[in-house]
Amino acid sequence: MRTFTLLFSAFVLGTSALQAQTTATFDTLHLSKADTFYVNYTASGTDVGFNDGNAHFPCIYDTSYGGIWSTGFAYTNMSDSVTDGYFNQYSAKAAKGYGGSGNYLMAHCSDPVTYEPKMRIILRDSALGRPVKGFYATNSTYAYNSMRDGDFFSKKFDNGDWYLLTVKGYSGGVLQPGAVGLYLADFLFPNPADNYILKTWQWVDLLPLGNVDSLELSLTSSDNGMFGMNTPAYFCIDNFTTTDAPAVIPPILAVNSAVAATAKIYPNPAADVLYIDRTESSLQHITVTGISGGVVYTGTTAGTHTEINTATLPAGVYLLTLSGNNNTATTRFIKQ
Q: Do both 156 and 280 map to the same domain?
């Protein structure tokens, strides 16, 4: 499948520099039954979108004309890869999410003000101002069948036609240079036998966009009329993956480095039990704190070998402090 990346002054981040990542699979978003989708008319004309992973996915429904989906994202588990037309606007041509999963996102790409085929994804929490790793994309059944066969509004695709998803990044409210694109349909090949309309999940690598606060996704097509793009402005997303800011670790204090060297803390990372072997008898008091400063454990050493139950601690980074006789030694351990 053909993709492109346009880099001007965009910062490129290698995957080796990534600290952590969060993937929105949308499978934890509740749907009452199979072959259904998210719909919400409780606040007509305003954003009734949802969060998953470290992103907000806007959605606007409108009660006008009996109720319509104006723009944005809807999570869905629809599996109709056959039926043509607008009334099958929530189904992926792949019939399932990436890897055969149940839920995925359908994107109806329409700016609520200009009605241009564009929309936004808003980053949040630890992903804000960080690079986005990427997502999987494919065609909706509605758009795929329209390009394959033509319909009342759209032409049947032929040599020279194309349907393109383009992603750009915003930082500090400013649209950044650079873009990443995926051809959802590509009939531009010299050999017509290579022409295709995408019906499988394809990875879109967004790391070249660098640090962003939000993403702009837009659709363009070779099939246009007096009111804009004729091709149905729909596509599908799954496994939206952000990179997360590394945790802020407080300074490690070791008042006496010689004392700090007289205690062995293991295993690190720890699972259910953390062991302390000490040879300095004055270090009798134990304090464990999370990286935010909250104390999660206090106790005293029992001889030269002490065990701490860490099974109930959430995964993360912790500080362990041994103290006594005006000496303090602090080290760091990871709970898996």
A: no
Between CA 147 and CA 162 the distance in angstroms is 9
What pLDDT, on a 0 to 100 scale, did the predictor assign at position 3? 63
- The mean pLDDT values, 10 residues at a time, for the chain of 336 residues are 55 46 96 96 94 96 88 97 96 97 96 85 93 96 98 96 96 90 95 96 94 95 94 98 69 40 78 83 79 76 84 84 73 82
CA distance 5 to 167: 10
263 and 213 in one domain? no
308: phi then psi, degrees, rounded to nearest 5: -115, 130
Q: Residue 180 forms beta bridges with which residues?
A: 5, 167
Residue 249 maps to a domain: no
CA atoms within 13 A on the CB side of 324: 15
Helix spans in 140-268 (H):
141-149, 257-260
Quick one: 263 and 140 in the same domain? no
Tell me how far CA of residue 263 lies from CA of 101, 198, 273, in angstroms: 48, 59, 16
Q: Does the residue 140 lie in any domain?
A: yes
